[in-house]
Specification:
Structural class: alpha+beta
CATH superfamily: Cytochrome P450
Number of strands: 10
CATH architecture: Orthogonal Bundle
Strand order of the largest sheet: 1-2-8-5-3
Radius of gyration: 21 Å
Distance between the termini: 42 Å
Helix content: 40-55%
Order of helices and strands: HHEEHEHHHEHHHHHHHHHEEEEHHEE
Length: about 400
């Protein structure tokens, strides 16, 4: 088939259950494949790694020439370049503890175990359980709510906002703004206002949460503006649960499809941290990222023009046979797992330690119950989003 339609075929919802043959086609078509919409698609490991670390590549959608990049607001630091990215990322990390110290995350270990144990009460013999709605979604949502200081009872409110924002952030062929983009912008504004108001309520009367820490920062030089606080808090709330839901759910699906690996982890639970890393390579929660060159850029003999859209297919790089031995095999004992599950370079996911902790706790609790569980539907129904790929539901019969 025409390689210029690869992005359209990858993002087609019909491809969501198994996009990996399309990624293989992408790698075979060349390191750089120009798409019908004018974007450039890249799926080989070493080229992706080089571009994620290349300072000539921008994460800021406002640097692009395509009309959908004309965003009406300043992006969160995830989509900014240095030095502004470094400044906001550093300020956002301050409530986590001293530099290079995961104090706040480590302090959540016991809480995560307690939340996990409470959620396991639905796992009774003879029941059907939706891994997403009954477990993989409520666990990280409860954790991030407690970290930020967001009332758990407001979850229906911010779930609707999250869905709209995530839908607008997806990678899509074409360059025209859509109703999805407008709905995402509106949701981002409303969620930001809600979170800033929560923070303001704690000014002068702080609790032990991150919104309180932001609102009561004593040093004016380290204080986020209202707009920065809104964007940062929205990013933390969404990123704090969206990708982890997919990581846990993809992990359960992978293990149920591979009883021998499930049995291995049941017999050797010390392999679980390594297995989570392999899951991040094999079935990553984030499949693609967009980058935009500041200058005309030569990549493997192809000139990508300044301002052009470059789609880095991270999940394809994770399955590149030039980088990994037998990449289509899930192997919890794989010795070399330098994956793109959390990205790479200066935009490496700074919530990675929390996601790892949650995934290990979740799978550690679930694995003893999965041996006698069966998938009710395989493949399961998938979410619309192609960039944040994961099942919408995963029903198992216990």
């Amino acid at each position: 088939m025409d390689s210029a339609t690869l992005l359209a075929r990858i993002t087609d919802h019909a491809s969501r259950p198994d996009p990996y043959p399309l990624y293989e086609e992408l790698r075979e078509a060349g390191p750089v494949v120009r798409q019908a919409d004018g974007s450039y698609l890249i799926g080989t490991y070493h080229h992706i790694a080089a571009l994620l670390h290349d300072p000539r590549m921008s994460a800021d959608p406002r640097t692009g020439t395509r009309s959908r990049s004309e965003v009406p607001h300043k992006p969160p630091f995830l989509r900014l370049d240095d030095p502004e990215h470094h400044r906001l990322r550093t300020l956002a990390m301050r409530p986590f503890g001293p530099p290079h110290s995961p104090r706040r995350v480590d302090g959540m270990r016991g809480e995560i175990d307690r939340i996990t144990k409470d959620l396991m009460t639905c796992f009774e013999a003879g029941r059907q359980v939706d891994i997403v709605d009954d477990f993989a979604y409520p666990l990280p949502v409860t954790v991030i709510c407690r970290l930020l200081g967001v009332p758990r009872e407001d979850e229906p409110l911010f779930r609707a906002w999250s869905d709209a924002i995530v839908a607008s952030a997806d990678v899509r062929p074409g360059d025209d703004a859509t109703e999805t983009d407008k709905a995402g912008d509106q949701a981002r504004m409303e969620m930001g206002g809600y979170l800033v108001n929560l923070a303001e309520q704690r000014r002068g009367d702080p609790s032990d949460d991150m919104l309180s820490a932001f609102a009561n920062e004593p040093d004016p030089a380290l204080r986020l503006t209202r707009e920065e606080l809104a964007e940062t808090a929205v990013l933390l709330l969404i990123a704090g649960h969206e990708t982890t839901v997919n990581l846990i759910t993809n992990g359960v699906l992978t293990l149920l499809r591979r009883p021998e690996q499930l049995d291995l982890l049941r017999r050797e639970p010390e392999l679980l941290p390594h297995a989570v890393e392999e899951l991040l390579r094999y079935e990553p929660p984030v499949h693609m990222r967009e980058r935009i060159p500041h200058v005309d850029l030569d990549v493997a003999g192809t000139t990508i023009p300044q301002g052009g859209s470059v789609i880095l297919a991270l999940a394809s790089g994770n399955r590149d046979p030039k980088r990994f031995h037998e990449p289509d095999r899930f192997d919890p004992t794989r010795p070399d797992i330098e994956h793109f599950g959390f990205g790479s370079g200066i935009h490496l996911c700074y919530g990675a330690p929390l996601a790892r902790l949650e995934a290990q706790a979740a799978l550690g609790a679930l694995i003893p119950h999965l041996g006698s569980a069966g998938l009710v539907q395989d493949p399961p129904p998938y979410r619309e989003n192609a960039m944040l790929r994961g099942p919408r539901h995963l029903t198992v019969q216990l």
